[in-house]
Request: fold
Amino acid sequence: MNFVPKITLYERKDIEVLTAVLLKKTGGMTKEELLRCTVDKEFVRYFDLICCLMDMEEKGLLKLEDEIYYPTAKGNYLAIELADALPISLREDALYTAKKITAQLRLENSVKCEIISLDNGYQLYIRFINETGGADLMELKIFAPTLSAAEEMEKRFFDNPAGAYRSVLNNFIEGYLTVSEAELREAF
Reply:
């Protein structure tokens, strides 16, 4: 059995590079998100990361706006130039975790899901939020005879929410927003 030793970064410059790479690849993260993909994975110690974030802000390698750390051009340059100096297993694992965390957050902001108790069962209520404002893009209400059935439907939905949205929408717009074979032949 091959054992890959756990790698922890102690050098300030390495921690800065890892942070810059994560911010460049995700576009921005909160302190909590950065902690989850570095400290929780034991790639970096807590106080080292916190000190590094303050230093990076002073150096202009990142900016903090509304509790989200964003990369700057200088920070992106650091990420591009020095990313290969980090151990690839650490860099890729931290990046995978960061993308997973930020994708989950975006999903939570764009889809609201709730299980509502009814007299004769439960209802899974799903709302696809219009992130630009205005009315919701779509609402679904699905009956479930038991709480466990509703929870299973919710789990299945969150396994592929984009697929569920696409499937429902395609059933309604099929033939209206697509080009028919006859129209394609006429175009050529």
User: Anything to note?
Assistant: The radius of gyration is 23 Å. The first strand starts at residue 29 and ends at 30. Helices lie at 12-26, 31-38, 46-59, 73-82, 88-110, 147-159, 161-173, 181-187.
